[in-house]
């Protein structure tokens, strides 16, 4: 039995749960990080010494890092539509996955932690404003890419890149920040909402 470990309101856990739905996988979800299941426990640290979610346990195979988990699960199900075998097509998908994990995440982190999570360590007004500007700048990059591709971020086909970006786009729309009007991102957001897995695990009330 495949196990997915991590609280369902985590943006990185959402990716994995949405993908499991797309793949039609049977799995057990355990809400580590909530209700006494601390990430600092010896039991969890034995699975992921970084004390972060998600983690998957596939029989005796343990894996962490959300985008790597997504690659693994797509490969496990032989879903080359989501993660192509063609070298250049796959590189394009992975380019956007890596961009989400590095450039985009680093842009929104300060503002999100300050405005949504209300963390006392992220309350510098100037830093929040800088983070919001950077966040909007990166979503503009996505908007320009979608203007060129039309439907999804790498072209006409839905891929893993759209799963990791889809949860991030939802966070942008749901956070209490000033946003630009970006018609291609808005259309993309609605297009993804046609997928039941996104409504269950990506586009919901929790940013």
From TrEMBL:
Q: Where is the GST C-terminal domain?
A: 86-207
Asked whether the keyword Transferase is assigned, the reply is: yes
Which UniProt keyword terms apply here? Transferase
Q: Domain GST N-terminal spans what residues?
A: 1-81
Gene3D superfamilies in the record? 1.20.1050.10, Glutaredoxin (3.40.30.10)
What Gene Ontology terms describe what this protein does at the molecular function level?
transferase activity
Q: Which Pfam families match?
A: GST_C_2, GST_N
User: Is Metal-binding found in the keyword set?
Assistant: no
InterPro entries assigned: Glutathione-S-Trfase_C-like, Glutathione-S-Trfase_C_sf, Glutathione_S-Trfase, Glutathione_S-Trfase_N, Thioredoxin-like_sf
Family per UniProt?
A: Belongs to the GST superfamily.
In terms of PANTHER family, this protein maps to: DISULFIDE-BOND OXIDOREDUCTASE YFCG (PTHR44051:SF19), GLUTATHIONE S-TRANSFERASE-RELATED (PTHR44051)
Task: State what protein this is by name.
Answer: Glutathione S-transferase
